[in-house]
From TrEMBL:
SUPFAM superfamilies: ATPase domain of HSP90 chaperone/DNA topoisomerase II/histidine kinase, HAMP domain-like. This is HAMP domain-containing protein. It is a multi-pass membrane protein. It is found in: Cell membrane. CDD domains: HAMP (cd06225), PDC2_MCP_like (cd12912). Keywords: Cell membrane, Kinase, Membrane, Phosphoprotein, Transferase, Transmembrane, Transmembrane helix. Residues 310-362 form the HAMP domain. InterPro entries: Bact_2-comp_sensor_kinase, dCache_1, HAMP_dom, HATPase_C_sf, HATPase_dom, Sig_transdc_His_kin_internal. Its main location: membrane. The keyword Translocase does not apply. The chain crosses the membrane at residues 9-30, 290-309. GO terms for molecular function: phosphorelay sensor kinase activity.
Amino acid sequence: MKSRLVRKVYIYFVVIITMALVTVGVTGYWRSSNELEHQYDGLLTQIVDNVLHETDLFLKSYERATLSILISPVVKEALDLPNRATAGFYSAEIAMKGVFQPVLINNPEISMTYIVGYNGFKATDFNVHIVPFNYKGFEEYVEQMKEDETINAKLTIRDSGFLDGHLTLIRKLADRTSSSQFKGIMGFELKIEELNTLWKGIKLGNTGYFFIVNDRGKILYHPDSSRIGKQLNGRHFNTVEAKTDQVFELPGEPGRVFFSRKSDYSGWTLVASMSTAEQRQPISDLRQTTLLVGVVTLILAIFLAYGFGRSIIRPVRLLENGMRQTAKGQWTRVPLTGSLDEMDQLIISYNTMVSRLEELVERVYETELRNQDNLMKRQQAEFQSLQLQINPHFLYNTLEIIICYAVIQKSSEIKDIVRSLSYMLRYSIRTDLEKITVANELKHILYFMSIMKYRNQREFEIDVRVSTDYLLDSMVRLTLQPLVENVFKHAFPYGIEDKHTIIIDAWKEDSDFYVVVQDNGCGIGAEALLNLNTRLMNSRQEKLVDTQPTCEGSIGLLNVHNRIQMVFGQQYGLSVQSEQGVGTKVTIHMPTSSAKKVIAV
């Protein structure tokens, strides 16, 4: 038994530690490897985006440089002339000094800039260059640009410039009055070495690289200079075009991943590549580190679990031996282990329990005798309760005898009064759990009014407006009659007059049931009304029986309110509205029959 317990605790600890290490290690490795892969994918995307952004900014800067030429009065007037023959005073020297020279000074990477007009101006009229070139070939090149319909008022980039190793940046010059009418073209010959310098500064790890191709598959930049200007493999170009904005692999390029994105401005596609082995090296290092740390931690945890298990089992064995002795009737105390931990606290509690059990055994005989005495007193109380139940029956029988004598004496008044009183007494002190309905309460008021007729020496009819649909709804017993009796006592203090009325009505709202008793008597003063409603709100602190009854023989408003709350809850009860000289309205708030369980009180 003992060895099994030690072995079981040890196995449990080993299983829990192993599960924790495996779960944390596998989950951590899986999450970390996924995050690293996402980071490398994000790195490729970020580098490509940055290069494209820098390239677009570099090219857009020349679009802004063209504005100084476009707004030049010399250029505008020359292009607005009807023909070249009238523009003899517009010399190349003026164009160079006033228009092109500032652009060349601010942008030394531009080798040539020129303007050609549709009115006869040639490229040699407005042309500034810093390298020699073939004039005839240049004129043919410019004529092709003039006929090219793909060139418009926006700056167009041609990666195959007129000059070797240059890009052509060209745009058409629109008329002032119509954006579709062109007066000429303007172009730059830009050294592509400037872009190469920009691209060479981008690093993608030890084996990563990127290259740029145009929309026809021509390689504009590659870290291998021998491939610049050559055509990209057809299958590779199709894959690059189809996998834009995705991480993919190229046929014939095993062990590498690629990411491509196309520039909306230049139309060039930038492709970044990274070695799969280099990408996965941190993941491999993470896997090895996770396994090594997991194994070392598991070995240490096993030794700790063994020692921890023994530290728990030893005090448990001491407690087990002490309990065996106590079970034999020998009150044995267990010595403390000296560790002052929870196990010592458990031993202290056990020793305290043994001491108290020893004391309790001595008191058990006294408790038995005391219980016998309490049992006799309880039987006496039950006997007295039976006697109290007999007395009302004696009263009922006596009232029946009075009714018999009234019949013999032919006194219908005495008969009606006694019969009504007999019913009211029987209804008031009934203790069964019979469900009380609205009809029962109205019948109780009927007998009450029968007695009041003789007391007041006149007939008085209550205006009952309760719908027949509500007569079988449940409510608390003895709630309506005290309210009606309260009206006779306080609402009509100077006697009943013909104008006096009492109205009883009822209605439902959602899961709430309301019964109202309303009179047109003298009403209640503002201060008294406030005091009354305050007592109803604080009724939980009042006694069940009102210490200040509202009239003689009445249970009182507070008593009715308390009994309703005892049956249905604190959110229900009475509310009083009154205006002095107008009348008083008392509303009973209860749940509907479908939302409540009534207990007769």
